[in-house]
Design brief:
The complex is a heterodimer of chains A (115) and B (114). Chain A is mainly β. Helix content of chain A is 0%, strand content 52%. In chain A, the strands form 3 sheets. In chain A, strands 2, 5, 6, 10, 11 and 12 form a 6-stranded mixed beta sheet that branches. Chain A has a 4-stranded antiparallel beta sheet with strand order 3-9-8-7, with no helix packed on it. A two-stranded antiparallel ribbon of chain A has the order 1-4. The N and C termini of chain A lie far apart (41 Å). With 114 residues, chain B is mainly beta. Helices cover 0% and strands 50% of the residues of chain B. Chain B is built from no helices and 11 strands. The radius of gyration of chain B is 13 Å and the shape is globular. The termini of chain B are far apart. The relative contact order of chain B is 0.34. Classes of the chains: A mainly beta (115), B mainly beta (114).
């Protein structure tokens, strides 16, 4: 079974500052890794995914994440945040060998961007 | 861009009543999922569905839950006899195929059990 830990429940940051949202996972098998964003009263939108290959993946809205296998981490970063980035961010994993791609989510990190 | 649509956006139901949550997945997608998020908690997998069959279900998905694809476009989640603890946001998702294809989520249905 897999598990995902997002240690920070809330991250306050000023506009134009850099941000890192942390994600660690536990799994006995290879996994795919995802970051989803949830804006207020909306569903989950895929930000980026790591499937294989380069460990640095770029997503939408200027976000990127780096897969670190030895540390079982997949931290999300943005060099300069905007007010509009205020949202809940979820890290998720799915087993590579599972045919139906059940997603296991972390508890989420609320990013609060202030002027 | 095609999207997953869910109706209603908010459902209020008396405890013990049956409720049906509806979803229209993206048209060329073949794999369908339901997740739920109890307020303040993580998003949890309920069930996956492919080729008119349940392919995987979680321990949450007990006998009071059922899923159906009644026609070529809708995908429904039925809760037979609702309990207070069923109050949650329910998300439908779909993917074009299995493996590394990302799931696309709807905006959710907020279910409130009184």
């Amino acid at each position: 079974a897999q598990s995902v830990t997002q240690l920070d429940s809330q991250v306050p940051v000023f506009e134009e500052a850099p941000v890192e949202l942390r994600c660690n996972y536990s799994s006995s098998v290879s996994v795919y890794l995802f970051w989803y964003v949830q804006y207020p009263n909306q569903g989950l939108q895929l930000l980026l995914k790591y499937l294989s290959g380069s460990t640095l993946v770029k997503g939408i809205n200027g976000f990127e994440a780096e897969f670190n296998k030895s540390q079982t981490s997949f931290h999300l970063r943005k060099p300069s945040v905007h007010i509009s980035d205020t949202a809940e961010y979820f890290c998720a994993v799915s087993e590579v060998n599972t045919g139906f791609q059940k997603l296991v989510f972390g508890t989420g990190t609320r990013l609060l961007v202030s002027p | 861009e095609p999207e997953v649509t869910q109706t209603p956006s908010h459902q209020v139901t008396q405890m013990g009543q049956e409720v049906i949550l509806r979803c229209v997945p993206i048209s060329n997608h073949l794999y369908f999922y339901w997740y739920r998020q109890i307020l303040g908690q993580k998003v949890e997998f309920l069930v996956s569905f492919y080729n008119n069959e349940i392919s995987e279900k979680s321990e949450i998905f007990d006998d009071q839950f059922s899923v159906e694809r009644p026609d070529g476009s809708n995908f429904t989640l039925k809760i037979r006899s609702t309990k207070l603890e069923d109050s949650a946001m329910y998300f439908c998702a779909s993917s074009v195929r299995r493996g590394n294809q990302p799931q696309h989520f709807g905006d959710g249905t907020r279910l409130s059990i009184l």
